[in-house]
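Our consortium's second objective concerns turning raw sequence data into structural hypotheses that experimental partners can test. To show how far this objective has progressed, the report includes one record in full. It was chosen at random from the queue rather than selected for favorable results. The single chain below, 182 residues long, was entered without modification.
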Amino acid sequence: MKIYTRTGDEGETGLFGGPRVRKDNARIEAYGTVDELNAFLGLARCETLPPLIEHVLEQVQADLFSVGAELATPEPQKLNMPLVGDADVTQLELAIDALEEPLQPLRNFILPGGTKAAATLHVARGVCRRAERWVVHLGAAEQVEISPWIIRYLNRLSDYLFVAARYANYSASVADVPWQHR
């Protein structure tokens, strides 16, 4: 089977179990940004990460496939797709709590950076926030019914990635760099 189909050569793509839409459709932007986030998490996992982070990111990457599939499907409930839910959000919250335990409380904003692993997690956090914005836009502008769990999951994931970046620096004995207003 060839990877190219030529069916998208005119700027359209097919939704899973649905119609063809333009490639600049909000649904395509939403799940495309989730895919980009997943790729950045794969890049982050190429770095040496603390086991607490590595374990969670492996599951998150699998979860993001479910999120992307749900966003790519006009009627995901009819296809009995694996959807993210309350348990997945709770797992992220527990992971955040575990990483925050040894960290000093933040007293000011920090600049993204430190170790390469932390910087990559900060980039992933920014992409996660963009994915969240696209999902919210899709629900509002296109009047598409979006599972509230997707928005909650992405919101919590961006929090997790922020704390994971701080923890990656902490584990490498690299201090976070506070933002200095000029």
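The partners drew two points from this record. The helical segments are 26-44, 51-71, 86-100, 116-141, 148-171. The chain has five helices and four strands. Both points have been shared with the crystallography group to help prioritize constructs.
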